[in-house]
Every structure is written in structure tokens, then in C-alpha cells.
Amino acid sequence: METRVAVMSIILEDSARAEEINTILHTYGRYIIGRMGIPYRQKNIHIISVAVDAPQDAISAMAGRLGRIPGVNIKTAYSNFTSCAEE
């Protein structure tokens, strides 16, 4: 199975939705390389970066689920690097 490396940038405007985000990220945890969360208290938002190595379908599904949460904005940047996943 071919995988791609990507970075998801998430801006959370409603901290009450953090548990929903964490649940989705946990569901796709096997693909997550690393994540970083930054609370921007002056603006009352949270910025989350998630690096993944996953099949294209999994990245799209995760981004779609996250993007449907009210108060969440997400953008995904893909590398040109692809590889075959180890089974």
C-alpha cells in the first residue's frame, strides 16, 4: 500500500470541540508521526500541527472528519514523497 507524508494544520476556534479532535486523531493514531499543539491565549484559539505518513484515502478521510467539526479550520500540505507501507 502506497503512503504519502503530509502535514495537517488545524485551527480550533472553540475549545469545547477539543475532545472531538482528539478522538479523531486517536482513531488515526497509527499514521501520526508527531503532533504539536499551541494555545494562542491572546486570540482564544488553538493551533495544532499533525505530521502523518498514511495512504491518501486515510489522510483525506481524517481531514474530512476534522473539517466537519464546527469551529475547526484545516488545511493539508502533501509532500511529493511516497513509499510503500510496511505490512
UniProtKB/TrEMBL annotation:
UniProt cross-references to Gene3D superfamilies, sorted A to Z: ACT-like. Chain A, domain 2
Q: Which organism is it from?
A: Anaeromassilibacillus senegalensis
InterPro entries, per database record: Acetolactate_synth/TF_NikR_C, ACT-like_dom_sf, FeFe-hyd_TM1266
Q: Which domain of life is it from?
A: Bacteria
Q: What is this protein called?
A: Iron-only hydrogenase system regulator
